[in-house]
Amino acid sequence: MTRFHFVAGLPTAGARCLLALLTQNPRFSVAGDSPAERVFSVLSAGRENQDHPLSGISSDTRSALLRASLDAVHHARPIASVVFDNNIRWLSHVTALAELFPLSRFVIMVRDPARIAAEMAQEAGAVTSPQALMSEHGVIGAPIQLVHDALSSPASKRLLLIDYDRLLSDPERVLDLLYAFVGEPHFAHDFRMLAARETLPQTITGHLARRVSTPNDATSRRAPKTDLPIWRRSSGSEATMLLSETG
Question: Model pTM greater than 0.70?
Answer without folding.
Answer: yes
